[in-house]
Amino acid sequence: MEYREILRIIESEISTMPYSGKVASYIPELARIEAEKFGMHLYCIDSGHYHFGNSEERFSIQSISKVFALTIAMSLLGDTPFNRVDVEPSGDPFNSLIQLEYENGIPRNPFINAGALVISDILISNLEDPKQHFLEFIHKITGNNSITINTKVYESEMRHSHRNAALLNLMKSFGNITNDIEAVLDFYTFQCSIEMSCKELSTAFMIYANKGKLINNEIEVIGPRKIKRINAIMQTCGFYDEAGEFSFRVGLPGKSGVGGGITAIHPGQYAVSVWSPPLNPKGNSELGMYALERLTTLTGLSIF
Ligand code: GLN
């Protein structure tokens, strides 16, 4: 079946689909987003772009930024970040404190909040201007220099980040945070408040589908061995306590964010992004997951 036809089917199914999910409200500024927004953008290595809906409207990428943070950390330091953060699925919510206590301040993986906060700490220690470096990395992999943060979302989360502060304090008590808590919280919240569209996210994620190379000029951003590892962590940990369900239903490595975005890749084939703000109880976009499930079902292709 043709991708154009497949997206047309998904679009018509989504337009009448009931949903029970709720737009994230624990960051008050995110609660203002219209629940009805829906965008999908598929970028195929061989045949280019397919899209529908609000696929060019920017939204808060939130935890999808954790993939970029890990990529920067691994390109600077190879495997050494894994001395401070593990690569096992957590089976717990993204902001859970529970495992950290009995696992001595070592987060299960870099895609839950605790693990991403450790990666933020590592980036602060190793980069002169981590915020600028982070934005420049995204500019490089998208070819778009206008991507930046939403200041209101950043400020809103900073005023409501007691739980992330708790994670940082607990990890610092175990010696797994080296910088000031405020500095790490600030940088982490900054990266989460970056806004991108489905089209921009799919373009950025082409490096994970294309063995670490930019799609337009084949310049290598990060080596294939590291890409293999990052994709493996997306597969096993990209959806918190729903990573198994996402593998089961969709069958692709991917990453979600509480802004309602999900980006997934099929190595050697494509990157695909969806945006629909209502989240299921596990904090993942309800209709976004449905659309991706339909994509791999209708194409008959997944990594399995
Ligand atoms: N900035 C959000 C937080 O720390 C990111 C969470 C997410 O997207 N799952 O709570």
Based on the model shown, name its key terms.
binds glutamine, 10% strand, alpha+beta, globular, single chain, 304 residues
How would you characterize the overall build of this protein?
The radius of gyration is 18 Å and the shape is globular. The strands form 2 sheets. It has a 5-stranded antiparallel β-sheet, sandwiched between helices. With about 300 residues, the chain is an alpha+beta fold. The chain contains 13 helices and 7 strands. The protein starts with a helix and ends in a 5-residue tail after the last helix. Helix 4 (about 115-125) crosses helix 7 (about 160-175). The structure holds glutamine (GLN).
Quick structural overview:
By secondary structure, the protein is of the alpha+beta class. The chain has 13 helices and seven strands. The chain has a five-stranded antiparallel β-sheet with strand order 2-1-7-6-5, with helices on both faces. Strands 3-4 form a two-stranded antiparallel sheet.
Extended strand count: 7
Unreliable stretches: none
How large is the count of helical segments? 13
Kindly, what is the distance between the CA atoms of the first and last residues, rounded to a whole number of angstroms? 19 Å
Ligands in the model, by name, code or SMILES, are: glutamine
Query: For the CA atoms, what is the radius of gyration?
Result: 18 Å
Strand content: 5-15%
Instruction: Assign an overall shape.
Output: globular
Helix/strand class: alpha+beta
Percent of residues in helices: 40-55%
Average pLDDT figure: 97
**Strand arrangement in the largest pleated sheet:** 2-1-7-6-5
Strand/helix succession? HEEEHHHHHHHEHHHHEEEH
| Biggest sheet layout | 5 strands, antiparallel
